[in-house]
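Before a computer can learn anything about folding, someone has to put a protein's shape into writing. The three-dimensional part falls to structure tokens, numbers that each stand for a local backbone shape. The protein below has been through that process, and both of its lines are reproduced in full.
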Amino acid sequence: MSTVEAGNSEASARESTPLLAVSLSETDLEIAKNDTREPYLAVALKELRWVASASSLTTLALVLQASLFFVNVISIGHLGTNELAGTSLSIFLIGFIANAPTHGILSATETFCSTAYTASQDKTLVGFHLQRGLIAVTIHNVIVAPILWKTESLLLAIGQEPDVAKFAGIYMRNLLLTVPAFTGFEACKRYLQAQGIMRANTVVLVVVLPFHCVINYLLVRSPTYGIGFVGAPISTVISEWLMFVGIIIYTRNSRAMNTWGGWDIRAFRNMFVFYRFAISGVITICTEWIAFDLLNIGASYFGAAQLAASAIALNSISFISYIGAGLGFGTSPRIGNLIGSAKPRQARIAGNVAVGLSLLVGMMCTTFIIVFGDWWISVYTADPDVANCVLIGFSEMTKLQGATVKLALSGDSVVLRGAQRGNQPPPERTLGLAFIQAPRLGNATRGTPDEPLALEAREYLRRRIAGKPVRFVVRHRAQSGREYGSLYVGEDTADIAMKLVHEGWARVTDSARARASRADADAEEADVVAELVNEEEFARRGKRGLWEPKPKPSRPRLTTFEGDAAAFQKQHGGRELRATVEQVRDAAALRVLLHLPDAHQMVTLRLAGVRAPAESEPFGAEAKYNVELRLLQRDVRVRLQAVAPGPTNGVFVGTVSHDAGNIAEWLVASAFARVSDGAVSLLGDGAAYLRQLERTAQGKRMRIWRDFSESSAPTSFDATVIRIVSGDTLVVREAEGADRELRLASVRVPRAADETQGGYAVKAREALRRLCIGRTVTAAVEYRLDDSRDYASVRCGNTDLGVNVVERGLASVVRARPGGTRAAAYDELLAAETRARDAHSGIHSGRPLPPPAPVDASENATRARAFVANWQRVGRVPCVVDHVSGGARMRLLVDRDNARMTLVLAGIRCPRAPRGDDTTSAEPLGAEALALTTQHVLQRNAEVEIESVDKNGGFIGSLFVGGRQNWAETLLEHGLATVLPASADRSPHRTRLYAAEDVAKEARRGYWATHDPTAVEEAPREAAASAVKLQQRIEFLDVAVSELVSPMSFFVQIATPASVAELESMMAALAAAPPPAPVSKFAPTPGQLVCACYTSGDQWHRARVVQVLPDKYEVLYVDFGNSETLSAARVRPLPAQFTAKAPFAQAAQLAFLRLPVDAPDSGFVEGYVDAAYAALRPLLEGRQLVANVEARPPNAPLQLTLYDPELGRPVLDKSVNAEVAAAGYAIVDSRALSSRHNPAAATAISAIVEDARTAHRGMWEYGDITTDE
């Protein structure tokens, strides 16, 4: 037979059998033998020491255990009123339905265990009774768990607020996970206490509680790891299970294991008898809990604030009651042990001691709450509404009534506000301060002015009572029903009227004096009036307030705004103004009294960046009430941002800041207001923070956002910009190779065809092109409208493209409807538009800008020839590739001449590209060549070098993109073009073109992948090569340098006597018959010959128009080579008799040489250009020279070798060309036509250049600056 069976046999194995199986006479003998006979006081002192010692640990353990929920309530109380209210309901519900019955059942278990431990010979009965208690508690919890899981539905069914019910349901569902751990911990605790082991739970809680505080903060309040409200119950779950594990470990390593006989199936027998014994404990504890629950349920019907206040009060009471419970739990095992030891008298004395000690502790706790009540409430919550409800509840228990001051009407009249009931506004009452009178404020409607010092008296009262909890007592009522009484602020025992009279801001009324002097006067009132009279005498003697003989003049109080609102805002808008909120019209519209240096000005202020519901709309009244609670008659700081639109004068838009924070931010964060797009741009950098608060409030789905449905966040992707369609549309190429057209979200540029603003559209497109063409951008599609286009936010580096064009004034912001689609950087766009508007930039300047109309230089061959000479003279002309129609054919824009041209790359033949959807006419590799050119050349900055013009007006030349190599070479290297010898051999880039083609041949790329390079006929190449192997030209001319354009470029005149005489004759004819002014407006085009009046000397010359400017023309004097810019009045049509003669000045350059400044990889320092000028001027200017024409390139300057005739026979080493090379200011141009015509001379000049480089002369002074040619 087991030990448990033996024990049960001794007790006749029935639950109804007495625990002590002895006869009555034996019991009396046992008591007489064991019970104490010491004096009562001595036993009481002994038991006091024992109870205090044992209960201190138990009390500490209970307080520590209660601190788990105490910490939760504190942390949640600072999250919000609804969160605290929901937590309160869930804690009390689980306490009443689950935890209270658990305590009741386990109290019976403790009684069984303690008695068995003392009275039974078989100590394993203690463990046996523990098993029965665990079985009973587990059955109960399994039954009630589904009910607690439906807490939210249960609360909604009994009419609770949805937000409160939602938070209660969330908390409860998480808290259910603590029930097994809580049950196990409590059972083990009772099991140990029954054996006199009191410190186990204390040790465990001392370890777990600090951890709970830390993890509660991390999960609830931490900015990094916090998850908000749900973190509180999760931290409780973790801590409860740690407690359970801790007490199990403690039990396993204690002497309590001696009473554990293992699990026994017979513990399930006769459970009905166990329940019958435990039911009384369950009823007792549940009765206590249901009283608290009824208080909470009742408070919940008055509103979330009242429920939160009830939670604070009841949590405080519960916290204090745990001290008494600790005394009970510590005393109960002691009494059980004494009874089991047959010491009933000592047990009775121990119980009396415990009761007395509980009364003493209760009185001490009550005193603490009364004295430190304000501080105690502030620990729980910072919400003034909840705090006021708690204080008002305390005041209701006394003679005085509690309220909160809504506002001070005047120096002797206030409006009081009671506690809020449900969602209804709280009741209000007006109270006049009894027995005194202060100066009256005026009434604008009635036309009455303020009495002297009326505002000062009101301000004195306002600063001391506005928004504060007060206690008041009504002294009497007038016949009109108005109430008069005494008012006490906070815990102050002095009537506020006493202070007003003491400071001289009010006087005692005559009627009060008369009432107090009557024989039947109330003694209390007479004493109050007498004290007021004494205070008045004090103020009168001290000449305070009203009694000052010569008071300072008061600043007037202006209740209406008269004047220019815009000027007022401009004067005061740049700084913060001190103000007082006098009225709250709705949550986002206030009447404020600005305290200006010369007056107190009343204005209406709308909060910038937010829009709150009207009072009649859902949550409007609640929002207004909360703003009144925080701002009404408070001192604030106001910044006037703008004048509100509309006919109403004196209405401004601005911000209101209080010491506690910005009210607009609080409204948005509390889901009482939404961000208003119209004025959010006024907030600058604060707009982003306001948006963040709005997103957080939307995530909580509370109040105005309760039905909010969050759309999926846009996904971003990286792509390369390949084309700018317009100022708000671009085409990008994704990593997968697909092209995608994107429009900038919330941005709109003017139409390009608009006659007044089309120019801004072109500028916007150009701004985007310069910023991002060819670069990688990050795009996020924000929305898609009915037109099926993707509207995206696009960033290039740290620059938002939409913000960039808007800030330049080249685009406007598309206004979004509330809740409608918009760009993620919508606030930044609005702010950028405001800055552009303030700066009067672009479309906000009010100036029309029609779209530009560039001249089509390729309209026909005649128009093209008018431009070619000027562009050839310039050399490389800056341009933009506007359109690509083929691999080697494109349209360029030349901004400097307001012209556009069609360019065909010289020296190559590229396959024909497809046109649109028509691919039938396309040649192999044509599409690939088009794609490559489009990807790398389209809309890029480039330079074009013109060689000639075809018969259709197209220009033939070379294109250099980004300062890199000739684009024709790139096409050749990729095998997407072949060299065209007839054109390439005339090109200065002939050598590089053939070399690029050889690269493609060797790599078998493109065209050469299917064609054998060795099978190509060599005859055309040889014929072309022989065509350029010309003999050295010998063509000497007498010339004079008329204009030095650059160190290598100049104009020469043929200096023969016949040529000079012909020029002088023509100039004399022009001077004798100057051209008449044209009858109609004369508008020459670039390239056209005109008659221009030279500024120096006012003499008319033949000239060619180089560039057309507004009301001006840049002209080149064709007979001398110099150029200048003239007004339109100095340019006239050239008479017909002067147009036939060829220009007397011809463009020329030094043969064999060039400056390395044009080579991108040369490293040539610009400063050497001036030195080269200085070296050339004495050799060329004003001198007659002999020139040998080394080469005459078509449509290009002459290439000359210049000699000084005074030096005798022309020798190359003594030529001007050699002197420039020897001075170190030029290098040999091996690609020049002159170098190929006369290679021997080019070699000789190369030797001179090498000598200059070795001697570090000129530009070689710091070493070699060129790369190998």
Observations:
- DSSP finds 37 helices and 44 strands in the chain.
